[in-house]
Amino acid sequence: MRETFRDHVARSWAEPYKIKMVEPLRMTTRAQRERTITEAGFNTFLLRSEDVYIDLLTDSGTSAMSDRQWAGMMLGDEAYAGSRNFYHLEESMREVYGYRNLIPTHQGRGAEHLLSQICIRPGDVVPGNMYFTTTKHHQELAGGRFVDVIIDEAHDPQSTHPFKGNVDFDKLSRLIESVGADRIPYLSLETNVNMAGGQPCSLANIRATCELCRRHGIAVFLDATRAVENAYFIKQREAGYERASMPAILREICDCTDGCTMSAKKDSLVNIGGFLALNDDELADQARNLVVVYEGLHTYGGMAGRDMEAMAIGIKESIEEDHIRARIGQVEYLGRRLIDAGVPIVRPIGGHGIFLDAARFLPHIPREQFPAQALAAALYVESGVRAMERGAVSAGRDATTGENLYPALELVRLTIPRRVYTQAHMDVVSESVIRLHDEPERVLGMEMTYEPKHLRFFQARFKPMVGEAVLLESALPAQLQSTP
Fold first, then answer.
1. Given CB 3.0 to 4.6 Å as the disulfide criterion, which of 198, 227, 371, 467 pairs with 191?
2. 0.85 cut: is pTM over it?
3. Which of 297, 318, 339 is the endpoint of a domain?
4. How far is Cα 290 from Cα 310, in angstroms, rounded to an integer?
5. Is the pLDDT of residue 410 over 80?
6. H or E element: which one contains 334?
7. What angle do CA 165, 267, 100 make, to 5 degrees?
8. What is the CATH number of the domain that holds 264?
9. Of 303, 318, 333, which marks where a domain is finished?
10. What is the distance between the alpha carbons of residues 256 and 468, in angstroms, rounded to a whole number?
11. pLDDT bracket for residue 7 (50, 70, 90)
């Protein structure tokens, strides 16, 4: 019989590693946090890390490397051209992901930029299973237009569909018919869809999507950032894969597609780095030519040799079943605690974090007052836990009208770094969220006071809607009552 996470919990489940180095955490007072969030314009991205107690802003580049990875760092070959670490990385990528050509980049968005530039012409349309902020932005900068073809269940946080990342074939077929296959350079297929709450795609859907695209001469490029986590969910949820190994499932996902972009700062357990992998030799040659312009020579792509070595090792570690079971198990542990307390979150529990449904969490705050942004700021003030907004602020503005976009999902992401925190930290997080959920009226809506031109969620600034929210000003902490 197949084992589940709960089976391991019942037997006093624990992390499959031991700690040999620690980094002290700084505890702050509520008064200090009220001051620092005000100085940061109520944007958790603008907080200093030293002022954060438990940092769940992102799992990107925040994982703990293993002793093998740190040992590999000492083998860094920092030659400008032809570093031996590049060839070790190439060997690992080919063995685990199976693509023919490797173009290293400084991180995932470097790969997104290269792919967009070599494939997209002005006026092209790029379908995908829900947008991701940087991916969509690079496609638009290259003159393309993103079109969401994910299944409807992905936009419903209460749906328990096991594969909410799946492509909707009717939506995709209608798009091909309306714009023509020649205006679709590729389909962008994300595994473990981030903006949907870390929701996976089934292998049956991936295979059928790729077959549909090939019939129309459309390439499929995978966002493989969290493909290992997706492979784990396939093993757990998809009939016929219960006994398949993680490497075999991951390879089957990749073999369906023509290449991938990769932020190795997630699954591959490194603090910096990424790559573009392509099967088409001609496209790969174009990408190597561009990487020299934007990133660095094609055998380092903006990374030091030591970082490529750590990535080569991390790729192998990422597919170890004990590791991925513990990684997703910790996320599930936090999610179960919140569900049991009645906190509204995206279901099913995803792979890399818990996504609070801010619209249901704070029903008194209208969407134009950015409830997810308000909730992320309030959580930090409550306990020093740093989360991030994934709603209207992240969605940005309509390129034509300039109006704010209001996606169906207004979320706060509690993203769990790999091999960093213990279950005791997850207890602190859940208790903090539950306290806010018990008194939602303590949270005020937000007004944007500064908006940058690109990817505004990183640098935008806000202020509380004092006197304009449903709540009385007296509900605010003293530090915030004086906020203009």
1. 227
2. yes
3. 318
4. 25
5. yes
6. helix 321-340
7. 90
8. 3.40.640.10
9. 318
10. 52
11. low
